[in-house]
Amino acid sequence: MTLNRRSFIGTGAVAAASLAAPKVMAQGMAKPRVLVIGGGAGGATAARYIAKDSKGEVSVTLVEPTREYFTCFFSNLYLGGFKEIGDIGHTYGTLAAEYGINVIHDWAVEVDRDAKTVSLAGGPVLEYDRLILSPGIDFVEGAVPGWDITAQNAMPHAYKAGSQSQLLRAQIEAMPEGGVFGMVAPPNPYRCPPGPYERVSMVAHVLKQRNPTAKILIADPKPKFSKQALFEEGWQTHYGGMIEWIGPDFGGQNVSVDPQGMTIDIDGMVEEVAACNVIPAQKAGRIAELAGLTDESGFCQIVPATMQSRVDENVHVLGDATNAGDMPKSGFSANSQAKVCANAVRGALTGSKVFPAKFSNTCWSLIDADDGVKVGATYEATDEKIAKVDGFISETGEDAETRKATYEESLGWYAGITSDMFG
Ligand SMILES: Cc1cc2nc3c(=O)[nH]c(=O)nc-3n(C[C@H](O)[C@H](O)[C@H](O)COP(=O)(O)OP(=O)(O)OC[C@H]3O[C@@H](n4cnc5c(N)ncnc54)[C@H](O)[C@@H]3O)c2cc1C
């Protein structure tokens, strides 16, 4: 690869490249090949939209290790007993059978951007014309002293859904009477800004019924958090006295854990915990790093109009692995970015019209039964970043009917986004 391509950063140049005449669509030539790594909110949506809208003109391959994807969205509702694990599991059969996507269940282990190939753990080497990466997050090693990935069974993160969510739910249910549930909350930026606080609400919902003298302790390195006033109001209303939040002013930044001894040390105060949810600092999924697409922030810089990597015009990055400007890391965001990306990729490979990029996001959180709140915004692509246009947030003191309607809206959203991802 030339120095020129490696240092490719010009937004204008990328936009022009996307709209340039396709190089692989002449009659008689092989179909252009799109390879998608990661079958989550970003990857599954992008694969489906490219396959659906190109009507067979583009060959789409999706690489995803798991046969059943459990959404992190609504995994907190699973912890709270509002959903069962089967309700949040989705498979890839429809993408293969109805959209003609070649779904390969394997890990991508190496990306050769010069040769435009991706090696899989199982051996095959796949070629691409455009690569889309949506590998989600990995954890920053050493972020919480005392914790590493080998401690994930003793102190689950449950920040990738599935068996981790099941384990955490079992541990919450097994807590002894009056025990402490500890949470180590992550620093910014991390996936789903309201996620830890919705989780605490759901844990409190369970404990209130099963173990009302139990306590919840949150050690947080951040001075404030998403929808804070709404959560604090809800915690006071539904779970008065059960939840204690310790921010950086009171030592929430200086935290270590002992997974064997089941203790948490907050600025020298050692607390025994019956269950402990450690959510470490985050970075882009490892394959993005291996592909040389991340910078010192740990995330990938993208061109907002197309979601192309700023270091390689043939690679697009989506979702939590990106630095998406004003957009939070959420499933809704990843899904929205995937549609912009699919449109740009199809335009580049088949000459179809590319529409101006528009993005949106809403994050709903459940505080207690029928008590839902939300925050959301719309965004546009500027040369510099994905920039917020306007936004909204639930208000404190809303009536029960409004909160119930907000929760019901989230149920509709879940059904909509999962069918948008998996067909
Ligand atoms: C507790 C919690 C609650 C949440 N609630 C909400 C919510 O209510 N609303 C909302 O919008 N968002 C929510 N989110 C956030 C949302 O889940 C993520 O933002 C979203 O899943 C990001 O999509 P993604 O495509 O970037 O990554 P993911 O959906 O995580 O998909 C990444 C995929 O890539 C695969 N992968 C990784 N590495 C490789 C590799 N080397 N080779 C092949 N495949 C690979 C993984 O197996 C995975 O399936 C929540 C998150 C959490 C943790």
Give a summary of the structure in a few sentences.
It contains 11 helices and 25 strands. The strands form 8 sheets. The protein has a 5-stranded parallel beta sheet, covered by helices on one side. It has a 4-stranded parallel beta sheet with strand order 13-12-11-17, with helices on one face. A 3-stranded antiparallel beta sheet has the order 6-7-8, with no helix packed on it. Helices cover 30% and strands 26% of the residues.
Strand order of the largest sheet: 5-2-1-9-21
Rg from C-alpha positions?
Answer: 22 Å
Percent range for helical residues?
Answer: 25-40%
CATH-assigned homologous superfamily of the domain at 33-139 and 282-352? FAD/NAD(P)-binding domain
CATH class of the domain at 33-139 and 282-352: Alpha Beta
What is the rounded distance between the termini? 37 Å
Give structural notes:
- The protein has 423 residues and is α/β, with parallel strands linked by helices.
- Among the domains are: 33-139 and 282-352, FAD/NAD(P)-binding domain; 163-278, FAD/NAD(P)-binding domain.
- The protein contains 11 helices and 25 strands.
- A 5-stranded parallel β-sheet has the order 5-2-1-9-21, with helices on one face. A 4-stranded parallel β-sheet has the order 13-12-11-17, covered by helices on one side. A 3-stranded antiparallel β-sheet has the order 6-7-8, with no helix packed on it.
- Helix 3 packs across helix 11.
- The chain starts with a helix and ends with a helix.
- The protein binds flavin-adenine dinucleotide (FAD).
- The site of flavin-adenine dinucleotide has 39 residues, from helix 3, helix 4, helix 7, helix 10 and strand 23.
- Its EC number is 1.8.2.3.
- Keywords: FAD, Flavoprotein, Oxidoreductase, Signal.
- Residues 1-26 form the signal peptide.
